[in-house]
Amino acid sequence: MKHLLALVAIGLNLGGCYVARQALSFNSLYNSRVPVEAVLHDPMASPRIKSGLALTRELLNFAGTQGLNVESSYRYFVQNDEGGVSFIVQAAESDRLKFVTWWFPFVGSVPYLGFFDRSERDAKARSLREKGYDVHVGRAEAFSSLGWFEDPIYASMLMGGEHDLAHTLLHELTHRTFWAQGSAEFNENLAEYAAQFLTVAFLKSKGREEEVQRYRAEREDKSLFRRWLGQLRDALEQSYALPDQALDMRQEAKRRIFEHALTNLPAFKTTDYGWIKGAVWNNATVLAAGLYSPDLARFERAHACTGFAPMGVFLSKLKAAEGKDPDGFDALTSLCAGEPVLDKE
User: Fold this and answer.
1) Fewer CB near the terminus (10 Å): N or C of the chain?
2) Residue in 149, 155, 130, 138 with CA at minimum distance from that of residue 3
3) What is the CB-side half-sphere exposure of residue 345 using CA atoms within 13 A?
4) Predicted structure pTM score
5) What is the pLDDT of residues 9-52, one digit of tens each?
6) What 3 state SS string does 153-192 have?
7) How many Å apart are CA 273 and CA 139, to the nearest integer?
8) What are the domain boundaries of the chain?
């Protein structure tokens, strides 16, 4: 699971064992950073790393022109060897699609915890399972500090293709530019929309049409996945809404719904979705996947009502609307109040 915000509080004065341990672990990782410039001039550095860092510079310049907050970000590089920056645990009620959430200063309520040590994450997962929750575990390739410190480039961000790096970086820069407290689903959905819109714009600006086509093909597969996930979620919600079911009957119905869904996967065209059958599917997995499979149409409609303004302007308008209406999705809808929807072209 990528792009999750690793929940590391800034400083140790916020209290709490979890916060203190993750802050200490992050401090150790962060202190291993080296300037990007030094890596680019290091003859021993991997060509792949150098290529990715050079692309990062292009992306930051582009993001700046679009009004995203790039100040003091991605000027350093961290060689992390775990294939991800942090390890994530999420939990949900076993008989309904409702996340367990945690609250942190500055960030608000969030449906995940991030750990820099896999064993700590796994211990937390066991504890949540023992309490009867459905649990999903994953890892984050990147995260945003929401502007509280200078985010570095992690090696795990450079392992994919050109469009993967563009999407990841633009997603995290969206978080850095605007974060609505108390709605992780809204924030992740918004960042996914912004990343997809801007990735295509960036690749087109560089004349990389073949990369655009590859990226769009992957997005089409993601749309197929989103529809499949939506049908699975609808089936679960309908089952959970039935009254007076014994617990064993509810669990058996749940098992059958997942079994049916996993034997009726879409015909994906370009993307290897083999992980779907290998995953442990439960309520937490469904909710976690939904964070990064949003209904982009509602975000595109709102963006259209601003005349497809530069993304920074769009986010500023959304932030102003959110100041009047704390619910991010309602704030999004309000951008179109009394305004015509414009053609994208």
Assistant:
1) C
2) 138
3) 0
4) 0.77
5) 333 333 356 665 666 666 676 767 889 999 999 999 999 999 99
6) EEHHHHCCCHHHHHHHHHHHHHHHHCCCCCCHHHHHHHHH
7) 17
8) 17-183
